[in-house]
Predict the 3D structure of the following.
Amino acid sequence: MRVTEQMVISDFLRNISKTRQSIDILNRQVASNNKIAKPSDDPFIAEAIMRYQSAIEKNGVYQKNVANAITYLETSFNAVDGVISTLTDLKVLITAASNTEEPGMLQTYSNEAEGILQRLINYGNTKFNNKYIFGGSNTTTVPYLYDGNKVTVSSKGTGGEIYVDLGGPDLEVINTNGNDVFLGTEIFDFVTEIRDRLKNLQSPTTEQLNKIDDYINVANVQFGKIGAIVERFKDVQTQLESEEVRLKDYLGNEKDIDLAETIVKLTQVQTNLEAAFRAWSGVLQKSLFNFLQ
Amino acid sequence: MSDLSRMLNIAKSALLANRYALDVTSNNIANAHTDGYSRQRPELETSPSVQTPFGYLGSGVEMRRVIRIRDAFVDQEIRSSTNSLGENQVYNKVLDEVEAYFNEPNGGGLSTEFDNFFKAFQELANNPEDIGVRETVLQQGISISKVFNEIASGLDTIRFDALKKVNDTLQDINNLTSEIASLNKQIFSLGSTDVNELMDIRDKRIDELSKLIDVKVIIDSNGLANVSSGGSTLVSGVNSLKIVSDSNSNYIQLLYEGTKTALGSISGTLGGYVNTFNTLIPKYQQKFDTLASTFINEVNKLHSSGYGLPDLTTGEASTGINFFEGTDARSIKLTNDVKNNVRNIAASVDGSSGNNLVAQKISKLLDKGIFDNGNTTFTQFYRGIITAIGYENSDSSRKATSYESRVSSLENLKSSISGVSLDDEMVNLIKYQRSFEAAAKVVQSVDELFDTLLSLKR
C-alpha cells in the first residue's frame, strides 16, 4: 500500500484522540469513583444502581420505622405492665378490705381505691411522642376522661389501628386498643364501684375479688401479645440491618471502580500517549527531501 | 540539415514535456496537504512517428493530458459511511442531552425524587398529626412535580432545537447543491473532462453534502455530476433543486420548494434531526407522560379517598381533595387545596387524626404493580425508560464509533490512492529534472553538430 503524509498524520491524530478519550474516561472514573457517568455507559449497571440505591433508601426508612415501632411498643408494654401491677395492688386492697375487722379502715381503703383509679386513668392516657397510645387512631384526643367521679371514653372512641410499614408484604398494626386493656370503661367502673362501696363502709363482695383476677388476665394477654410483637420486630430489625450491608455491597460492586486497576490503566494509557508523541516527533518529520543534497 | 532540425524539434518537445511534468509535480508538492486535492499525473505520450527513407522514426514526446488519480468507488463508499456516521452522531448527541436531563443514575434524577416521595409519605404515616411533617410532604410534592416539569421541558427544548437544526442543515444542503450545480456549469463551459481542480472542489462539496444527506452521484457523458438522494433529485446538470421544510408541532416534512412534492426517505445529519423531531423524542415523551399521568391519577385516587387533619375551628376533616393536578409531565403540580393548607394532605382513611392508612398506601404506590396489567411498578417503568434511552444511546454511540473507524480506514485508502506522497514527488522532481537536463544536452549537441557542419564550408 502506498503511504502518504496525509495518512500518517491523520492516523496519528486519530490515535492520539482515542488515547485522550480513554484518559478522559479513566480520569473521570478515578475522580468520581463511579464506573459510569450516564446510563448509556452501561445501561445494565445504571439500572442496577438505581434499583439498589432505591432499595437502600427504603431499607433506611424501614429501619427507622422498626426502631420507632419498637420504642412505641415498649411504651405500650410498660403501660400494660403498670396496669397489671396497679390491678394487683387493687387485689391486695380488696383482700385487705374484705378481711378488715375495723369498719373505719374502709374509708382509708376507699381513698386508696381512688388513687388506684387515677393511676389506671394515667396509664390509659399514656402518650408516646405526644400521641395517646390507647386512643386507637384518635391520637390527639384524651381517650379516658374523668370528672372526679366516673370515667368516660372520649366521644371519638378508642378504636382504629395505627399501621407501620416494615417493608413486608403487609402493613403491621402497632397500637393496642384501649378497649382490649380496659374493656371499654368496665375496669374503671369496677374500681369506681369498689371505691364507692368502701366509701359507704361496705366490704367488697366475693364476686368482686374473683373478678379482679379476670381483669389481670385480660391485661396479661395484651402484655404477652405486645412482648411477642416486640420480639418479632427485633428479628425484622436484624434482618433489615444485614440486608442493608448486603445491598450496599451489591451497589458498591456495580457502582464503584476498582481504584488500583483504574490507576494502573490510566498510567498505561498515559505511557502510550507519551510513546506516540515521541515516535511521531522522530518519524513523521522525515522524508526523502531531508536527504537530497 | 532536415535531420538535425528534427533532432532539435525532438529535444524541444522533451524540454516542453518535462517542464509541464515539473509543473504538475510542483503543483502536487504545493497541494500535498490540501484537503480534497487529488494527486495529478502528467500523461506523456510519444509523438506520432514520421516516415523516413529508413522507416518510421519517433518525433519526440508530448504531454497529452494531466489526469487526477481518483477512485470513484472509494468515494461512494466514504460518502455512504460518512452519511451513516453523521446520522448516528446526531442520535448520540441528542440522547446524551436527553440523558443529561434525566440525570441518572448517580443521584439528582427522578429516581431520587421517587425515593424522597416515599420517605415523605412514610414520615407522614409515622406522624400524621404533625404539621411540620406535612410541610415536608408538601415540599416533596412540589419538588417531584418540578423534576417532572424540568425533564418534560428539557425534552421539548431538545426537540425544538432539532427543528432549528433541520432548517440550518437544509440551508447548508441548498447552498451545497447550488454550488455543485454552478461547478457543473463551469466544467461544462470549459468543455473538458480534465478540469481537475474544479472536479476536486466539486467532489469535496459532494463529500460535505454526503454527511448531511444521503447522496448518489452519476457523472454523465459531459462530465456533469447528477446528485440524488433516496431517489429524489438534488442536482440535475446545471440546475439544483431547493428543499424546504414544512412542520407543525407533531411532524416535519421535507418538500421541494418549487413543486411542493415530498422527498423520499432521508438519512444523514438531516435525517437524524428529522427523526429526532418526528419519532425519537416523542417516543420518550409519550412514555414519560404516561408515567406522569398515571402517577397523578393513582396518587389522586388514594388521596381523594382519604381525609386530612380535622380543621381547628370546625373539627371537620377535609376529604375528596386531589394531591396533584395536571395531565402530563409538563403540567403536573400540586393542587391549591394542598398548597394552601397542609391539613388537607390526606393521611387518614376515616378522618381520625392518628389513622395513617392512606399515607401508607400512597408511599407504597411506587412499588405497586400498575403498568402492563399490574406487572410493572412506577419505579420499574421509570427505570425501563432510562435503560431504553441508555441502550439506544450506547447503540448509536457504538455505531458512530464503528462508522468513524470505517470512514477513517476508507479515508486512508483514498489517501493511499489520491494523496500526495512527498517521496514520490521528490523522485519525480529528480526524474523530470534529469530528463530536462538531458534534453538540453541534446540541444547543445545539435548546436555543436550545426557548428561542425558549418565549419566544413570554410
